Amino acid sequence: MIKITNLEKYYQTEEVQTIALNKLSFEVKEGEFAAIMGPSGCGKSTLLNILGLLDDPDGGSYLFNGIEVAGYNERKRAQLRKHNIGFVFQSFNLIDELSVFENVELPLIYTGVKPAERKERVHQVLEKMGIMHRRKHFPQQLSGGQQQRVAVARAVVNNPKLILADEPTGNLDSSNGNEVMDLLTELNEAGTTIIMVTHSEHDAKFSHRIIRMLDGQKVTENVLV
Amino acid sequence: MLRNYLKSARRTILKNKGVYGINIIGLSLGLASCLLILLFILDEVSYDSYHQKSEDIVRVVFKAEIGGEEISEAVVMPPVGPTLEKEFPEVLTAARLRKMNNPKLTYNNKNYGDFEFAYIDPEFLEVFDLKIIKGNNTNPLENPKAVIITEKQAERYFGTENPIGKNLSFEQWDKQFTVTAVIEEFPENSHFEFGVLASMEGYDYAKSTSWVNSDFHTYLLLKDGEQYKNLEAKLPGIMDKYMGPQIREAIGVSYSEFKDKNQVGLFLQPLTEIHLNPDFVSSGDLKPGMDIKYLYIFGAVAIFMLFIACINFMNLATAAASKRAKEVGIRKVLGSGQKQLVKQFLTESFLATIIAALLAILLVVLFLPTFNQLAGKSLQIIDLLQFSIVLTTMGLIVFVAFLAGGYPAFFLSSFKPVQVLKSRFASSGKSSLRNGLVVFQFIISAGLILATIVVYQQMAFIQNKDLGYHKDHILVIREAHLLGEQREAFKNQVLKDPRVTSISNSSFVPAGPTDISMSGVLLGGEYQRRMFIYNVDEAYIPTLGLDLVSGRNFSKEFGAERNRVVINETAARSLGFHKDPIGKTFTLDTEDGGRELNIIGLVKDFHFKSLHREIEPLILMNNPYGGLIIRINTADISTLLANIENQWQKFNIKEPFSYTFLDESFNRTYLREQKMGTILSIFTGLTIFVACMGLFGLVTFAAERRVREIGIRKVLGSSIPEIIALLSRDFIRLILISFLIAFPLGYFLMEQWLEDFAYRIEIKWWMFLLAAFLTTFIALMTIGFKSFKAASVNPIKSLRTE
User: Fold this and answer.
1) CA neighbours within 13 Å on the CB side: how many for B78?
2) Does the pLDDT of residue A122 top 60, yes or no?
3) Which end of chain A lies in a sparser environment, N or C, as judged by fewer CB atoms within 10 Å?
């Protein structure tokens, strides 16, 4: 599903050029659950941004479902993104001004789903995540675990083929963290490809494969399953 | 989708009450000012356009330059109207109006004054829309003794009686008229303001064929009003044909010879332009006009204010960007395109603008009565429903929403999600556009402050100018002529009161209602120019406190002194008697062939006309008649007035006692400037208030953004004043830059305004300094409050929240 080859990304400040990704290559198959690990500053988040079509690589190739997307402009990336990719962030990134229902509904609005269908699908996914009773609440009225569940619900409501999770349990206690990991595992079992960046060995064990990075390069790859 | 935008917008506004409070209050003040000023301007430009044929009506005016004297009058000679109608087929109808001053009428043994009276041609009713509500509505002025009156006057004289067929007598002119019709009042936006209109058929002067005397307001109904310039081009021919022969008769030189040295001509002025061009003629206007300059000034102020409010919106939205950045990032990650975000932000600005517009309408409704008082208008709330106002309001909402919301919408929606989500969004503290907009706001604020200072200085200058006469403690009883033979007795009675210093018998006063008289002056048989004549008595100079430079005042010792005059310095210069005019003679052009006058005294120039005009030549003649001018020496005015009134009653005339104070009349001369000055200062205040609200918002954001920096600096030992200076410095720099543009611009514009005054102040350096000080002070107060709060926070707290 995803194949990157010799992917490069530089950050340029006034005087120093930092290499974030240094000729990185790997592949993630459809239906796989991959974890990316590594110390701070190794390029994990940069990688996730490029995989999520939020950012553009400076070199190399990125095949998404067999299509080269490395040179895509912002508009084309956004188009591809909203139909295929769901995001889960460490800090949840819910919109404070919108209720739980409205936050989850947002991707459906942007993909042009009709209101009646939106309501049905949001209810379905909220039910599934066990937060239906909280649908009228606003993010700040929820616990961290509940917020992350809303974020996951929002990530999956559009039935994306790929979910990118950036330290999804980083701001949660262990029991809430485990719940979120269980959710992700369920989604993966239902067929969604998941790529997760994490610092937690515990969380990484939920995945099929761990890709370890250092200084923008892949150092090892452990297949767990 | 729209519902979603609206919902989101509503919540954003509710959540950011501070920012949107500033935005909405600013916008509503701006919009309310725009609406008020729009109402004002629409009313001003609507003058006389209510007549159905207003587009095709022109007024004939007379302009000339004779002997170096410029004359321009709204009145023309009696035969002009009928002649033009006869000579030119494009003139459909000519209608004349002859205004009579100080009319008094008697009905049922009761005297009435205090109304406006004129004779009008019967055709007047064809040209203008006078709505007849009672009586003969086909041709009410056919009969030479016919008079038509307005509803109010009808009620005043007749109460509930039917006025039609009743007789009104005017003893002063020995005339009696019969009411043939009642008309509606003239609307306020008319340059006519009459209560009683009599038929011109019964007025003999109207049949005069003289092309030398001007007294008639003359209006022409044209086939095509737009072509009036074509007709105007043919008017010199008419002057040659009709005025020419009479000139030779009147002054003894041929018309062509006369025209070599002088210019005379008739000109046309479209009816709807009369009100806004008060300078088109210098005398004879029926109602004071409105200088169109004020409309431009107010219009500009309203637009400035709206711009400032829009700038607040833009600046605060972009300054608040760091708060909104996360939301933009998430929405983009979730698939929103830039277009959708732009729409969302525009929805917010639309919603805010609509709320502001509703508030603005409320403000207008609340403050319209106050505004009316200030502006001397009677605008109605219902006027807001005029099509043009409704349309403009809607247009303004769209315009403001796009202007204010457009830039932030594109700015905010262009954020890259990666940057704003992952890294802390570093809202650019320095935005050159934002700085530019702040400078613009303060150019306007500082400019308006400067303008207000100049206006107030000029007003104070006029108030305190040495007028050459005493305006205080002078009581004018213009109606004293009604005492007739008994006037002298009344005068002597009043003089017995020790609180009365002196009394002069004259109807000529330097301010307020006065008689006006002008005559041509000849020197050595040669026509010079016209000069003002004041008919006074020997008490006039001491009563008004005029300064006798040389020679002597009139005196009873020398008898009637009918052919002796006192002149002012300008008259002396004009006659060429620079050194010593005393004992010199000149000739007054009179109908019986001229009168030789001997100069016995010279008075220092005094402002016997408003300060808008240069002092002109003046001749004082010993010919007392008319009213009384009383100089008093007490502060206890009410009992003195009661005493004088008591005396008045004793003479048992039907006329009620009425008086004016000279200083009050003087102030009324500048009422327009004063009112305009007050309105200007109010709008200036509001504009500065709105600008400061924006500044307050910006400082708030700057303080928030730099809360960590402030904390670190304080830990390192920085004092509170140093922090305040740090936060204020950037804004103060912008304000100083704004002075560089505001002051030259303000100087240029205020010079233009001052040019209207013949006697005016110079714009001095300290006015700029004061304006700069005030602007900086107000801005510092605004910034200082917030900066102090930010600087006073315990650094531990601000660092922990990081």
Assistant:
1) 14
2) yes
3) C
Round to whole Å and give the CA distance between B596 and B767: 52
Asked whether the whole model's pTM tops 0.90, one would answer no
pLDDT score of B799? 61
As given in the structure block, the two tokens for residue B785 are 């409050």
Indicate whether this complex's ipTM tops 0.90: no
Q: How far apart are alpha carbons B441 and B692 in whole angstroms?
A: 9
The lowest-confidence range among A98-102, A169-173, B401-405, B421-425 is: B421-425
Residue type at B532 in one-letter notation: F
SS3 A1: coil
Burial class (CB in 10 A: 0-12, 13-18, 19+), B797: exposed
pLDDT of B230 over the 50 cut: yes
Q: How confident is the model over B773-799, as pLDDT tens digits?
A: 998 888 888 888 888 888 877 666 666
What is the C-alpha to C-alpha distance for residues B211 and B218, in angstroms, rounded to an integer?
14
Gap between the Cα atoms of A4 and B142, Å rounded: 104
| Average predicted confidence (pLDDT) for chain B | 85
| Distance between CA atoms of residues B712 and B718, nearest Å | 9
A151 - beta bridge partners?
A: none
Q: Are residues A93 and B421, on separate chains, in Cβ contact within 8 Å? A: yes
- Chain B nearest-CA distance from A58, in A, is 15
Q: For B275, what's the count of Cα atoms within 13 Å in the CB-facing half-sphere?
A: 18
Three-state DSSP class for residue B694: helix
Amino acid identity of residue B145, one-letter, is K
Q: Which residues of A171-196 are buried (b: 16+ CB within 10 A; e: fewer)?
A: bbeeebbbbbbebbeebbeeebbbbb
Mutation for testing the B interface, residue in A54, A111, A119 having most B CBs under 10 Å: A54
Q: Which of residues 538-597 of B touch A (CB under 8 A)?
A: none
Candidates B11, B331, B417; nearest CB to A54: B417
Residues of A in contact with B336 (CB under 8 A): 78, 106, 110
What's the token pair of residue B254? 């041929």
Dihedral pair phi/psi, residue B616, rounded to 5°: -110, 170
CATH number for the segment(s) A31-42+74-223: 3.40.50.300
Mean pLDDT of B314-334: 79
Residues 6+ apart with CB under 8 A from B233: none
Burial code (b: 16+ CB inside 10 Å, e: under 16) for B497-512 equals eebbbbbbbbbbbbbb
| Contact yes or no for B608/B618 (Cβ under 8 A) | yes
- List of chain B residues whose C-beta atoms are within 8 Å of the C-beta of residue A52: 333
Distance between CA atoms of residues B295 and B87, nearest Å: 39
> Are β-strands B263-270 and B105-107 bridged in parallel, bridged antiparallel, or unpaired?
unpaired
**Residue written as token pair 């019986």:** B592
Distance CA B314, CA B348 (A): 12
pLDDT for res B183: 94
pLDDT (average), residues B540-550? 91
Instruction: Find the chain A residues whose C-beta atoms sit closer than 8 A to any C-beta of B.
Output: 45, 49, 52, 54-55, 75, 78, 81-83, 87, 89, 93-98, 102, 106-107, 109-111, 154, 158
Contact B1 A98 (CB under 8 A): no
Q: What is the pLDDT of residues A27-55, one digit of tens each?
A: 999 999 999 999 888 888 889 888 988 88
Residues 6 or more apart whose Cβ sits within 8 Å of residue B658? B113, B477, B478, B479
Return the residue in B10, B20, B334, B421 with the most chain A beta carbons within 10 A, the one to mutate for interface testing: B334
Residue B707 pLDDT class (50, 70, 90 cuts): confident
Residue B640 to residue B648: CA distance in whole angstroms: 12
Rounded Cα distance between B675 and B375, Å, is 6
Inter-chain CB proximity B8 and A82 less than 8 Å? no
Q: How far is B715 from chain A (nearest CA, A)?
A: 29
